[in-house]
Amino acid sequence: QVQLVESGGGSVQAVGSLRLSCAASGYTYRSDYMGWFRQAPGKGGERVAAIYTGGGITYVAASVKGRATISQDNAKNTLYLQMNSLKPEDTAMYYCAAGYGGSGFLDPGKYNYWGQGTQVTVSS
Predict the structure, then answer these.
(1) Are 19 and 86 in contact (CB under 8 A)?
(2) Residue 110: strand, helix, or coil
(3) How far apart are CA 62 and CA 44, in angstroms?
(4) What are the pLDDT digits (tens) for 31-56?
(5) How many angstroms separate the CA atoms of 16 and 19, rounded?
(6) With contact defined as beta carbons under 8 Å apart, do 84 and 17 qualify?
(7) Kind of pairing, strands 33-39 and 45-52?
């Protein structure tokens, strides 16, 4: 059973930085892609960033472009999301997810496994 455990969230003031981590375990074989999603109170889910684990191709949402970097350490089975210049509108629960198959990179519905989330709160 694949397990994803996020960490690194917390409370930070605007323009601060956080690095979120997602430790994966239980893989029979590595997922094809992984991503970060977030959901703010009263709002729908939002795709933040994604990466193809084999080729390193990445996607970053326009709302965080220039402020967020997704990366992976395959040796540690860990996914990262470095977020800089944080804004109050970045406040949300951040979820890590992993998926298999070639077409689900940007579609949250195609991800097979999800973590429990880590809360990020940005104050002005």
Answers:
(1) no
(2) helix
(3) 16
(4) 999 999 999 999 999 999 999 998 77
(5) 11
(6) yes
(7) antiparallel
8 Å CB contact between 101 and 111: no
Residue 103 has pLDDT above 80, yes or no: no
N residues, the chain: 124
Contact status, residue 105 vs residue 96, Cβ threshold 8 Å: no
> Are the C-beta atoms of residues 106 and 59 closer than 8 Å to each other?
yes
Burial of 97 by CB count in 10 Å (0-12 exposed, 13-18 middle, 19+ buried)?
buried
Alpha-carbon span 85 to 104, nearest angstrom: 29
Across the chain, what does the average pLDDT equal?
94
Cα–Cα nearest to 53, from 90, 121, 4: 4
The 3-class secondary structure across 56-107, one letter per residue, is CCEEECCCCCCCEEEEEECCCCEEEEEECCCCHHHCEEEEEEEECCCCCCCC
Please state, in angstroms and rounded to a whole number, the distance separating the CA atoms of residues 12 and 28.
Answer: 37
For residues 117 and 114, give the distance between their C-alpha atoms in angstroms, rounded to a whole number. 8
Token code pair at residue 102 = 């070639």
